[in-house]
Design goal:
Length: about 200
């Protein structure tokens, strides 16, 4: 089995999805993947970010993580995407990045990649599932291979049980959540390796 190449791409205003992405990156590495951890570019005006202490602090905490590029997607055999829920769907910053992928799509380079997604929402029932299904609708347009967690590990009976992907609320990434994210990243890595990496 070859070494699978996994790119973790996330957006996070306040740090929740940053934490999820870091946990996923470590788990994928531990499972034998070569990993790139990337954040999508901020699209909100700098003065808006600077005007909110929590947003500004989270942006500074992520400043060492490279911004995602088309090459990070092209390079990967598998993708792990994470975004906050915004009005029931994927954050516009993540959508803006996804909308730059047209050239790869046109060349068929998004097809056959393995993909999985996670999210966070203020309210447990505030749209996490529709956000993940929004991601997955896009992945189907790519011809990608969706690798949801389902109930493939006992942790899915502890973490709130979202079979589409791990979902959490801000500040709630506890031990159970970290184990669930790790399971999802490990599963993505293992399925990718089985497909030939
Ligand atoms: C414009 C906007 C829309 C949001 N819409 C929802 C929503 O539909 N449902 C919900 O539960 N939370 C909603 N939230 C809360 C975010 O999901 C929450 O801030 C996010 O999960 C935190 O993730 P982060 O720390 O990675 O930024 C919204 C937040 C903003 C700023």
């Amino acid at each position: 089995m070859s070494t699978p190449k996994i790119t973790i791409i996330y957006y996070s205003t306040y740090g929740t999805n940053h934490g999820v992405a870091q946990t996923a990156a470590k788990a994928a590495e531990d499972a034998g993947a070569e990993v790139r951890l990337r954040r999508v570019a901020e699209t909100a005006p700098a003065e808006v970010v600077a005007g909110q202490d929590a947003w500004k602090a989270a942006a500074e905490a992520q400043s060492d993580i490279p911004e995602a590029t088309l090459d990070d997607v092209d390079w990967a055999d598998g993708l792990f995407l994470s975004s906050p829920t915004r009005f029931g769907t994927v954050a516009s910053q993540m959508r803006a990045f996804i909308d730059t992928l047209g050239p790869l799509w046109m060349e068929g380079k998004l097809a056959d990649k393995t993909v999985t997604a996670t999210t966070s929402s203020q309210n447990p029932n505030g749209g996490a599932e529709s956000t993940l299904l929004g991601f997955y609708t896009t992945f189907m347009h790519w011809g990608a291979i969706i690798v949801p967690p389902g109930y493939t590990d006992a942790v899915k009976f502890e973490d709130g049980g979202n079979p589409y992907g791990f979902s959490t609320t801000p500040g709630a990434l506890d031990d159970i959540g970290q184990r669930s994210v790790a399971h999802q990243a490990r599963r993505l890595t293992e399925v990718t390796a089985r497909l030939g990496g």
